[in-house]
Specification:
alpha/beta, Rossmann fold, ProC C-terminal domain-like fold, 2 domains, five-stranded mixed sheet, two-stranded parallel ribbon, elongated
Length: about 260
Amino acid sequence: MGRALLTAWLRVGITDIYIVKPSPIKIDESVDISGVKYFKTMEELPDNFLPQVILFAVKPQMLAEILPLYARKFAYNPLYLSVAAGKKLDFYAEKLGTAARVIRVMPNTPTMIGEGMTALFANTKIIPEDMIIAENLLQPTGEILWLANEQQMDVVTAVCGSGPAYIFYFMEAMIAAAEKNGLDKISAKMLVRQTVRGSAGMALMSDEDLNILRENVTSPNGTTAAGLRVLMSDGKLQELLDATIASACQRSKELSA
C-alpha cells in the first residue's frame, strides 16, 4: 500500500517525501521520483527533520517495535497516519503516547491509478485541520469515507482493502472459462477486462440499484438468464462471499491482538 500511495502522490506532483526503508520502493518509470529521499533507518534522518505528517505503511507485526522509536524522535507530536491492518487506536496510544494524533487509514491498491477507495477513522486527539490534511493527501488517490466507529474498520479491511484481490480472481476465473469455451487467451483477457471496466463504470454513473442494472441485462430465457441460473443457484455465490468477507474480517481482528 505504501507503493500505491507513493505512486498516486508522485503522479499529482506531491514532492518532498522522506521514506525510511532498507531499499527503495519500485515505482513505474513514468513517474518522477526526484523529490523522494530514501533513508535505510530512521537514525539517518536529518536532525532538523520535522515532518508534518508521518505515515506508517508496514506489516502490523512491525509496529510494536518501531512506534516507540518515532515517539521518542518526534516528541513535538506530528500527525500520524497508519495503513496497518488490524491495529486499533488504543494500540497507537500505548506505543506513541496518549497525546498522539492518529488516523487509521485503509486504502486499496487502485489508489495507484487514482481510483482507490479509502476509509478513515481518527482518535479524539486530532483537530479539524488534521482531517483537512488527511483528506488533501488522499484526494488524489480516489474516494474517501470517514467511518462512524472503529469496529467498522475490520469490515472495510475485508471488503475494500482485500476486495481488489477478489475481483481479480473472479476475472481470472472468467478468462479461464472463456478459454475453455473456445476463445484464445488474448481475446478472453481483452473481453473480460473491458467488460469489468465498463460494468464498474455503469455502476458508478447510474442512480439505479445494482439489481436493476443486472435485470436490464437479463432478457427472459436469454443467454444471461441461463448463466445467472447457474451463478445464483441456491444462493451459493452469496454464501461464498459471506464466508470470504467473514474470514478476512476475522483475520483483521486477529491482527489487532
